[in-house]
Amino acid sequence: MKIKPILFLILLTVSLSMQGAQESYPVVSPDGQVKLNLFIKNNSIHYSLDWLGKNMIKSGVLALFEDRKVVVEHHKISNVDHDWEMVWGQQKKMRDHYQELELKVAFNTIKGRFLARVYNEGVAFRFILDDSNGVKDVLLQSSYTPIENSVFYLPNGEQEPLGPLSLKELAAEQEKITKKKKKKALHIPIVIETPKHGFMAVLESDLYESKGFETMKIAVDLNKNALVSKNKGVVAQAAFKSPWRVILLGKTVGDLSVNPVTMNLATPCKIENTDWIKPGKSLWDWRVHGFKAKDGFTYGINNESYYRFIDFAAENDIEYFLIDDAWYTNIEPGQIEMSEKLDLEKVIKYADKKGVDILLYYDRRKGSYGDDKLFDYYKSLGVKGIKYGFMGNKAEFTRDAVKLSSDSQLLIDFHDGPVPLTGVTRTYPNAVTREYCHAQQDSKKAFSPRAFVRMALINGIQGPLDMNNGIFDISGVNAGEREKGPKIRNSLHTTVTAEVARTLIVFSGLVCLPDAPEAYGAKQDIFEFIKKMPVGKWDESKVIHSKIDGYISSARRYNDAWFIGSVHVDGGALDIPLDFLETNKTYTVTYYEDTLQTNSETNAEAYQVRTATVKKGDVVKAEMVAGGGHCMWIRPIN
């Protein structure tokens, strides 16, 4: 039988396309809106990403070796859908729902797997070596080529986050950083706003579990018009896995900060009994030194001052009191020299009697106690956690600190340029927060309403932040009445209501309150919002409104009560639709608001508190002055 030429051409084309299809692997999200296409080319895995019918990433490359051929030996697609619960977090019940592509690959003589997971809210990639076959080093590479005219935002240490920048402008900023700090790395997450008004964030997850890897480093490659990450890794054991490389998706920038993907990717909790892990609020001594109370008492480093903190904490259901860099004078291997200004043992016993737990600072610059002994020593003091300062941006060191603090049943709060171990709060929930932001009043690098909104929306994507919001004696701070206050007088532009809202907006397992007990006691009616707020134990969280350099409005639910906080850089009104309330229920709402007289520069402490009733479907107009805020505490009428 003879085949006609045109029919033969059709059959040949179909045959070739079927052969090519073996090297092309489409993966789709459960809702069908996220489409990832992967294929093998030039010994690397290439990909493109579409969302809601629009191209988001034109092209990208994923590789684990530079000089080894990649051969796909087998592939399979799996659909996964299961639920799990957080020990604490922005959501209690988590749904891990995705489609996964698994490629069994060979890198010459090395066997491994490549995983691509596609969620409704983003995608993630990971390499796993089942047997390293003697290889010692790998080079994890990933690139991201977004569509034209996208703009970029990113953290900038303790400075205000960078952006909006074009790719060329981002490359120029990278060059400045290289010359100044001799480091080429850009901080993650990189937030990408596309011209179609969708948002992405590029970062990593589960770095804790990827032994031998440091933090993800990103650079700009203008020749490829791409963001490029190249991270060397040491294969510490035969079975090896890389960190997840993650792209989050959001219709608004606020969606990224409550995106569940990075937490779903993290290794499940490794602590068998987590009953001792309690997120909460803490008073803090450092910013109060020099504060003069109306009864004539001046706060300092002494037992009398600390007893006042503890008494107020006990009376107002505040779980912790944090003593910063003041309780010791010198550190040497195996010995910490106590300050003669206070009797720490008495302070700890007093706090225990009052039902308040103590957290203690540790400054690694002042010498090393011996980190293998440090956490057991803190436990022997009878304290519940450590605020670890100046440990450096070292992932392996941070991994050890997380594990050792957990072994001693201590909470840990990382400060001073910490590693953004995204997802670690699932794996080790004793890692309650970190200062991956600007949180220092004494250095006004970024202490402004605009910088707050930027950091909440950008820095906060990687996990909990210890930002130390909640200043009530704003006039006293601006007047320079604190030993550790701003260096520039009248430089703190905020309102009391905005400060209250910030404690809710910024997610953390430890809300560290920086003002004096008397400052809060003088404004107990508005302090009520903070007092009632259940830190870290949220059942549900959402960002209702968000605009970089504009505003943010966050809502968090605990049981059947809602806490809502909003701030506005330029001032204005935000409509808050209460469509998340239950039908046929009436709720009491307490409003904590700026007034017509409030001014973030000249009359920052003016506010009002009032109550009303609301129901599902109501819309609240949250009105704020420039740099101001608005809060609501909503609970059902029994």
Could you explain how this protein is built, in words?
- With 638 residues, the protein is an alpha+beta fold.
- The chain has 3 domains: 23-265, Distorted Sandwich (Beta-galactosidase, Chain A, domain 5); 269-435, TIM Barrel, CATH 3.20.20.70; 436-638, TIM Barrel (Alpha-Beta Barrel), CATH 3.20.20.
- The protein contains 14 helices and 34 strands.
- The strands form 6 sheets. Strands 5, 6, 7, 8, 10, 11, 12, 13, 16 and 17 form a 10-stranded antiparallel beta sheet that branches.
- Strand 27 and strand 28 form a beta hairpin.
- Helix 5 (303-315) runs parallel beside helix 6 and helix 7 (371-381) packs parallel to helix 8 (395-407).
- Keywords: Hydrolase.
- This is Glycoside hydrolase family 97 protein.
Task: Tell me, briefly, the overall form.
Answer: globular
How many individual helices?
14
- Supply the CATH class of the largest domain: Mainly Beta
Helix content: 10-25%
CATH topology of the largest domain: Beta-galactosidase, Chain A, domain 5
Residue-averaged pLDDT, rounded?
Answer: 92
The CATH architecture of the largest domain = Distorted Sandwich
- Structure class: alpha+beta
User: What's the count of strands?
Assistant: 34
Number of structurally distinct domains: 3
Q: Which residue ranges are poorly predicted, with pLDDT under 50 across at least 5 consecutive positions?
A: 1-22
Terminal CA distance reads 85 Å
Strand residues, percent: 35-45%
Major β-sheet profile: 10 strands, antiparallel
Query: Rg to the nearest angstrom?
Result: 26 Å
